[in-house]
Design brief:
Elements: H1 15-23, H2 28-31, E1 38-42, H3 46-57, E2 62-66, H4 69-75, E3 85-90, H5 98-107, E4 114-118, H6 123-131, E5 136-139, H7 144-176, H8 180-190, H9 195-202, H10 206-220, H11 225-236
Parallel strand pairs: 1-2, 1-3, 3-4, 4-5
Helix pairs in contact: 8-10, 9-10
GO molecular function: DNA binding
Pfam families: GerE, Response_reg
InterPro entries: CheY-like_superfamily, Sig_transdc_resp-reg_C-effctor, Sig_transdc_resp-reg_receiver, Tscrpt_reg_LuxR_C, WalR-like, WH-like_DNA-bd_sf
Length: about 260
């Protein structure tokens, strides 16, 4: 079956125009010490997949191409949890289609946003894809700069998600170093209690409270109650939704410190 051309010749950029597009790439990647982005192209039509891959390479991104969606999904466990990039997948493919690829990625909570391209767009399909988190559904033929804009958006989302994951792990490591006694004091700090009030409620000396409080700020690397509160809230938002929000921080992982 013949399909429309992948890109419109009328919209092809000349070298100077494409250079301007490439210059717009954000330097945030190196600043955040992120891994190099990889764009994964999935299309059971080899010619169409090659065309998209060649276009993405002109954007100076590494590209990995798959004709079989199952091969891509099988390769996911081998990817780093910090992998930055995105997936560009055709919608209609034999076996696993683009929507199922999107669903599988959602189930695995990957950091790879999805762009779907199709020559047979339907409103209902587009709505389903966007509701499931797709960055965009592009009709073939699409413009080079249109795809470039969505790839930029997808990679930016990916970098932000990797950054959140790293921050979450960093905070978790700090919380783990707090003893149960430290955490009792942390709870009271979050409630706005004064040191003397804490001492009475926990039936310990004021000096003990001061020492535990000092330890909490040292371990959490916080300079103020406001910063400490922000850290707790940051972590809470990444906890499972089943944890009551008002008590979530009580379930933070910890280990006793000798």
């Amino acid at each position: 079956m013949s399909v429309p051309p992948l890109t419109s010749r009328r919209s092809r950029r000349d070298g100077a125009q494409l250079a301007q597009l490439l210059e717009s790439r954000s330097p945030a990647q190196s600043a955040q010490n992120m891994p190099e982005p990889v764009v994964f192209v999935i299309d059971d039509d080899a010619q169409s997949g090659r065309a998209v891959s060649e276009l993405i390479r002109t954007f100076n991104y590494e590209v990995r191409t798959y004709q079989n969606p199952a091969d891509f999904l099988d390769a996911l466990p081998d990817l780093s949890a910090d992998q930055v990039g995105c997936v560009i997948t055709d919608l209609r493919m034999s076996g696993i289609d683009g929507l199922e690829v999107l669903q599988r990625l959602n189930e695995r909570s990957t950091t790879l946003p999805v762009i779907i391209v199709t020559a047979y767009a339907e409103t209902a399909t587009t709505v389903r894809a966007l509701r499931r988190g797709a960055v965009a559904v592009l009709d073939k033929p699409f413009r080079d700069d249109e795809l470039w804009g969505f790839v930029q958006e997808a990679v930016s989302r990916s970098m932000a998600e990797v950054g959140r994951n790293r921050r979450h792990q960093e905070l978790q490591d700090r919380f783990k170093r707090l003893s149960p006694q430290d955490r009792e004091v942390l709870k009271l700090i979050m409630e706005g209690s004064k040191n003397r009030t804490m001492a009475k409620r926990l039936d310990v000396s004021l000096r003990t409270i001061e020492n535990r409080r000092r330890r909490i700020f040292d371990v959490m690397q916080a300079d103020s109650v406001a910063e400490l509160t922000r850290m707790v809230v940051e972590y809470e938002y990444r906890l499972p939704a089943t944890s009551p929000a008002q008590e979530a921080w009580l379930h933070l992982p910890f280990e006793r410190v000798a």
